[in-house]
Amino acid sequence: MKYSVLGILGLVLTCHLTAPAQSVKTAKPSSQKPAARKKTAPAADLPVTESATSTIIVPSWLPPTNPVQPAATIVTDLLDTKLDVRFDWAKQWLLGTAALTLRPHFYPQSQVVLDAKGFDIKSVRLVTAGKEKNLNYGYDKRKITVNLDRQYTRTESYQIRISYTAKPNELEAGGSAAITGNKGLYFINPLGTDKNKPKQLWTQGETEANSCWFPTIDKPNQRMTQEIAMTVDAQYKTLSNGLLISSKKNADGTRTDVWKQSLPAAPYLTMMAVGDFAVVNDSWHGKAVDYYVEPKFQGTAKTVFGNTPAMLDFFSKKLGVEYPWEKYAQVSIRDFVSGAMENTSATTIRQEWTQLTPRELLDKTYITEGTIAHELFHQWFGDYVTAESWSNLPLNEAFADYSELLWAEFKYGADAAELVQQEKLNQYLTEAESKREPLIRYRYAEREDMFDRHSYDKGGRVLHMLRKQVGDDAFFASLNRYLTTNKFSASEIAKLRIAFEETTGEDLMWFFDQWFMQRGHPELRVTHSYANGQVTMRVQQLQDSTFVPIYRLPVTVTTWINKQATDTRIVVTKADQTFQWAAPQRPNLVKFDSEGQLLAKTQEERSQDELLFQYYNARSYLQKYEAIDGLRSKVGDLAVSGMLRNALNDNFWAVRNAALEALRKYKGPEGNAIRKDIKRVAAGDVKSQVRATALGTLSTFPNEDFSDVYSVALNDSSYLVAGAAIDALTKAPTVDTRDRINALQETSSPTILSSLANYYSLNGNLDQYPWFLRRLNDVPEDDLYNYLQNFGTLMTRIPPIEREKGIQRLEVLARTHRNYAVKLGAYRALNTLVASTPSLKPLLQDIKAKEKDSQLKAFYSLLQ
Fold this sequence. Notes:
It comes from Hymenobacter lucidus. This protein has three domains: 76-359, Immunoglobulin-like (Sandwich), CATH 2.60.40; 385-517, Neutral Protease Domain 2 (Neutral Protease, domain 2, Orthogonal Bundle); 638-863, Leucine-rich Repeat Variant. The protein is 35% helix and 24% strand. The chain contains 26 helices and 33 strands.
């Protein structure tokens, strides 16, 4: 699964840098005794636990102790599910019959318990030799407990037929930040009253929500084959797992499509989608590869999804396991409760990322491509082999996350892969400021808590280190062993470790223990010196070893002398450790972790000359970025500004972007030349992201008029660039551009819509108030948080008597929206108005009092 708050990175065609000649040798730890490790002073806001012998500082990121969450006990095996379903769109009900084939797992059973949430049960029957008989059962609206006609052994299967009505909208609303709904089955615009939105129906099973629309054993360690007959109005297309084996027109104007998957998969991976879709056909190795989109996006579907066959080929060859399922389809759906979902052979994906106009594609391919790779890789890691419990979720999500780097590396080169590595590491480290959990978490409060940047971003970085530890050949051979040994079954972390150990012959318990089973990450301080023909490097691990291990870190250090690079392999094992190796003269640069592989927060001491040398001799994007970032505070120096001007012409767009960010508010001696360079980039860079950043950098120069540049950029082919021009004009509006900005009010672009809201929040008046209200329904859910606050800011400048409709809309969103970020945005917008409308205080207090989400209540308290 790709959840919507994850950042997706730009992947672009890059030129490979030519690495200089190098030699490799191994360093030995110095015999010099390391300095004693210093204890840092505790932060003032951290709680302190005292004992008779010591004082323990409990860090703010240490989560509370949660209950143990073991894998579900398997009492009964779910072997096969056959569903016959039709839909009442007006009532948003599913009318179904389910035939389940089951068998006791080991111990004899005379009873079976099934998950079935919020059903009306009409009958439960045993099917034997074509005959049916009623069975006694109990039902508590969550589970059906069925009393069988006799005791069955593990060699005997039986079939139960259940007639039922599923009423997902009558279930208590739930969800999380990652998956914002948990009712399993969703009717979109069911009555057709919204003329701007198609009627659709789709399902979302992860984590355990498919039992909201069919009875099952809703646990990830179950596996079943399946067949689903869907009866729908004839104009609609259907999609489900497996192959469409029949399609029959009915006398009442409906059609019944039957989809069958002959390979077993976990129940949460079952899906349905119904809607007015255009189906764009592709293929790979004789298997259908189809893209389901709304008809008006049929023309761009292959541009969006067109790399799928190449991905199928790449991943199949890399893993040595050919894509296992009968077909592969991807369907773009409205109002999805997540980013995308890896249902076996039929991925669902949010339409905002995939239904794009040709102009939107100039900016958005970087969002879709990583997601497409991510969900496809799940077809092996998550579907073919499935984590046995949600505690083991990284066995699904870490691999899917890492596939984004693998694809970027293969398709676009090493620089693009390093950009993925950088962004993912930063996302994990940001989350680690507030919580640090083991990757494999046997304690959690809620299942959805597992869907975080630990399971995704940290997990992917741990896999990258594992790849570097064993080498590429061993890494992919180990993955092949893991997949083939555990195919069509549930797995846990020990099985992955065993696959690597059996392949490599190494005992890797140390690696799996410190990276998968323990929380946190290394926090390193690295210094080096040169004397008497030797380089001495000191590596200190500064993390609090009360809660985080002292890590074993195999890492490469590169020593540059003139243009010659020598790689030295060291293994850090202590809290404070020094290493030495010979060098014939003082190096130009000594670079710790020169491969950029470590999942760590690293402070590495380097002089300005060393960082300049690093930039000009860098092997990779990350090394160039490090040099640029490390010299941000010295941009006024001619040598540094010269480096940044050089970076503006780099082959890789992210280097150019980094240089532009470093040049914000530049005040050095090359002011005119640098402004000229930035204007050139804003007007002519081939990458829209870079042109947009250049406009943002120009807007940081106070009291300077770049309105001519912004005016031209309003007509840019890229929405991202035009939006950046509006953002720049927000800070420095001009009379000449006001009408041109107003002319964009009916835009279909979410990017322009967000920029206009920002512009009007500071420069608008009562004239724009109805525009905010009217366009609110057109704003993608991910953008509503900022849009609503901009709306609140605008309302502070209009008469209080005019605000009633806006306040009502904000109140409804703050009370009822499914997405907690939207609720928070609406609440903050209302809070903005309190100063001028004190009567809103009781309303905000009431919203806070009735809010059930504890995280939201905490945010609300901070605002008061």
